[in-house]
């Protein structure tokens, strides 16, 4: 158990809908990262927050947004969903610069 | 553009042998490199970190080398066991403590 929690575990929704994925980092970790993993693309970095502020952006679509709250939990919002957004979404946390990342169990999103 | 390459073909070895996985990269000058293990449907788990000024790092049956001239890291598992079967991902520092991951190599250890 990494100490990172993600909810929900599974999510099935329809195209055009909007969903919110939630992540709670390990106790004391200030950084939260979001990743998307699909079979053909591998693990793709989406966005990083550090202590409530956006710190780095990766291949995140404009339809996706995220935020980190004062209690350090984070939410990833995915809107206008398309079939191609079906993937595993992972959240990871770390304690600081160059620290290792601890991954949550993931949310499996299926868009029908 | 930056690229990380890991062998996409699964590596099949027998129990007790040494598994060697390769990670090559181009257009990167990472300050460090990490290896993670991922089991199907689960999140990656950190294994080892090696910095650019380190040639080799060991942890129990695991050994990682980092050659910044060749732009290559090798990951070794000695005395491999069926429980070592998983996908192994290499990840490079991309700045601001973010990581860029390779697609991973699946290792299958047969009894």
What does this structure look like?
- The complex is a heterodimer of chains A (about 110) and B (about 110).
- Chain A has strands spanning about 5, 10-15, 20-25, 30-40, 40-50, 55, 65-70, 75-80, 85-95, 100-105, 105-110.
- Chain A has about 110 residues and is an all-beta fold.
- In chain A, the strands form 2 sheets. In chain A, strands 2, 4, 5, 6, 9, 10 and 11 form a 7-stranded mixed beta sheet that branches. In chain A, strands 1-3-8-7 form a 4-stranded antiparallel beta sheet, with no helix packed on it.
- Chain A is globular, with a radius of gyration of 13 Å.
- Chain A starts with a strand and ends with a strand.
- The model of chain A has no long low-confidence stretch (mean pLDDT about 95).
- Chain B has strands at about 5, 10-15, 20-25, 30-40, 45-50, 55-60, 60-65, 70-75, 85-95, 100, 105-110.
- Chain B has no helices and 11 strands.
- Chain B has about 110 residues and is mainly beta.
- Chain B is globular.
- Chain B starts with a strand and ends with a strand.
- In chain B, the strands form 2 sheets. In chain B, strands 2, 4, 5, 9, 10 and 11 form a 6-stranded mixed beta sheet that branches. A 5-stranded antiparallel beta sheet of chain B has the order 1-3-8-7-6, with no helix packed on it.
- The interface between A and B is medium-sized, with 29 and 23 residues.
